[in-house]
Amino acid sequence: MRLEGSPYFKLNDDKIIIEPKSSAQISVKFESPFLKSCSGRLLAIPQQKGSVPQYDKRDSRPASRSSQVTATTLVASPTPTPPPVPSLVSPMSFSLVGNVEARSIFSPINISVPLFKHQEIPISLESPFAVNARLRISVIQQPTVGTSGILLPSVEKQKAGSIPAISNLEGSFWVPAKEIPVSPKEKLSLSVHFLPFKLGIHKCRVYFLDSGVGEFVGDIVCTVTAPPPIESLKWSVEEGTSLDREIIINPKNSAIIKARDTLRLLETPKHRRGDTTVCPSFPSSEVTPFKVNISSPFYSSPETVLVDLSSSEKQVNPSKLNVRFMPKGIGIYPCTITIASLSHDVRVYEVEGKARPKSEAVSLEFVVPCRQSSIQDIPITNPTDQDWQMTVDLVGQHFSGPSSILIKAKATTSYPLSFKPTVMCTSKGTLSLTNSSTGEKMVINLQGTSVEPLSEGVIRISCIAREKRAIKINVPILGNPGESIVYKVESDLPFISGSDTLEILPPSLLSNLSKSVGASMVEKRSSGKFEGTMVDLESASPSKTAVATPKAGQLTGEYELTAYPSSGGNYRGTITFTLPNGQFLWYVIEMNVDQCAPESELNISCVIRKAVVVEITINNPNSVETLEFEVSMNGNGVLGSDTISVPPGESSLYELIYSPVATGDETGSVTFYNPTVGEFWYKLNLHAQKPDPISLPPMISEVGKVKTYDIWLENPIEEDVEVTASSTNDESFKVVPSKYVVDCYIY
Questions:
Q1: Which of 96, 240, 300, 379 is deepest in the core (most CB within 10 A)?
Q2: Residue 240 shares a structural domain with residue 341
Q3: What is the pTM of this model?
C-alpha cells in the first residue's frame, strides 16, 4: 500500500491480505491543520508470494482501474465472476479527497448591540499549535438576516428611481491587528470592533492563519436592535379625551453622524489609503419615506411619513409626524415610536402619556423645621402665542408669594410659593391662579407642617476636669422684641449649671427692674458616658432667674452657664430654652475635657519577680452612704483590686501591688472614680530593678553517682508561664526537665 499527494493522509498499515473470494478494509487517516480541501491517491499493489508486482514505471499510476473516494475507510474486493487466475494481478488506485469542517476554537459569542453604537468585542483563546506561529487575522461577514422586528418601507411603494443608494451597510466588523505572533499554547486576548449601520442579525467568522503551521476560526453573532431614543416626550390629557401632537423630525440623524465620525477615527491604515467603502453612505438630498412603528395600541399615526433630508436643521417647514394619544382610562401609557427608512436610518422617540382624572385635585405639602423656610417653584407653561397675566389668591397662615405673575408666550415661568412657620403647627390653605386672558383657574390645596426646629448652633467647650469654666450664650428672642419674655432652661448634661430661667427685658424696662444675679444650679460631678435623660434645672436647684437686657437693635439675650466636669473625656449634650407657649430653641454642646492634675506622684521601686505593696488612703466625704470606687490601673506590673468600698465619713486603704518582670523605668497611673465625688488619680513612677544572683548551697556527690537538688522559682504575674532552663556546664550540671510551667500568682 502506498499514498501519494497530500501529506495529511496517513495509513495505519502499509500491507493487507485479501483472501480468495473475500474483501478487506483499508483504513486511511486524514488530519489537516488547514481548512482547504486536500486530495491524494492510494495505490494498492498486489503481490503474490514469491513474485514482484508489475506496473508502468514511467507513470506512478497503476495501469489498471482507479476509483475516487472521500471516505477514510476503503474496501477492496475481486469482481463477482473473476476470470481465470492470472499469474499476476493488476494494481488498484483510489482517489482521495479530504474536506475539513470549520469549527470555532472558542464558544460562539452572542451579543446585542444598538444600531449605530460602536462595540468592542473582547476575545480570549489559546493557540492550538505546538510550535511558534505568526497568525494573519481576517474577518469574513455573512449577509445580515432580518430587521430585529422593525418594519421598513415597502419597496413597491417607492417611486421608480427613488430608492436610495446605500453602500457597505454589511461591513460592520473589523480587527485593528492584522497579524500577531504566538507561542505554543499561548493565551491570546484581542478585540473585534463592531459598528452596525443595519438592523438584523450580523454574523462573522474570524480566521487565524499561518500558511506554514495551520489555521483555526472563531464565530461572532451580533443582534442589532433599535438605537436609543433621541427624544423623550411627556403628554397629559384628561380621561375620556384624546390628544393630537406633532413630533418634529430633524433631517439629520445625529446618531449616524456620530457613528460615521467614530468609524473614521477607528479606521485602519488600509482605509486611510483611500478605501472609502468601509464608511456607509446615506441619502441626504431627497424626500425619503419612513415606516412608522408604534409599540402601543393607545397611539396612532400614519403608516409612513415623508422626511425631507435635504433641509437644514433650522428649516422653515420641518417634517412632522402626527400622533394621536387615545387613553382608555386613568393611568400612564408608555410608548416607543420608531421610524425607519429603507437605508436603515432608524430613529426612536420615547413617549409617556398620562391620563388624569377630569376633576383632578392638585395638592402641595410642605414639611419644614420651625423658623426655617421652604420655597417651592410651581412651573406654569404657556404654549400659546399670547402672554398670560395670572392673578394670585393665596390663603393660609405662614404661606407667602407674589400677588401676580406674567407668563410669556411659548415659555415656562415658575411661581415661587414660600412656607415659613414661626411656631410648630399644621397650616392649611389654597393657592388660586387665575388666567386673566382666558378666565381659566387652577386651584392648589396647600398643607404645611412645622416640625421641631433645627439646632441654633454648636457650642464647643474645651476645659480641664475638676475646673470650672463659664460660657456665655446669646439666645435669640422668639416673639416681640418690645415685650418681656421668659425662657425655661433645661439640659441633659449633669455637670453644667446655670439659672433655671432666662428673662429678656426690653431696654425700656431696665430702669424699673433691679438687676438680679442667678445662683448656680446644684453641681453634678461625674465622668464617663451619659445617656440622653433631660435634667429639669428648675427642680435641680432653688428657682433663680437670670435677667438680660439687649441693647437697642439687638435681638438676643445673654445667658451664662458654668461647666464643672469631674473627669476627662469627650461629651455631647444639649441645652434648651422654652417659652410658656411651647416654642423653644436649642443648642448642641460638645465638650473636650482634659484630665486634671494628679493628686500626687508615687515613686515605687521593686526588684523584678518580687512584689511591693503601696497603701493609698481613700476618704468618703459623704456621711450618709457608702461610696464604691471603680479602680483602673496603667503600667506594667501594676496590680490591684478593681473596686474599693469606703464607709460613710471614713477612710479605707487601697493596696496597690507592683511586681515587675522586666527591668526598666516607666510611668503608670491608678485612677479612682465614683459618680458622686467624681474622679481623681495618682501618677506612678515605676522603677524595676535587676535582682542579685541566688547562691545555691554546695552540691556534693560521689564520683560516678548523681545528686539531685530542688530549685524554687516564683511567678509573680497572673498567668502561667513556661520556663526554659540551661546550664553553662552541661558535663557536670543538668536541669531535668529543661522546660516546665510555673503556675500563676493568685491574689
A1: 96
A2: yes
A3: 0.42
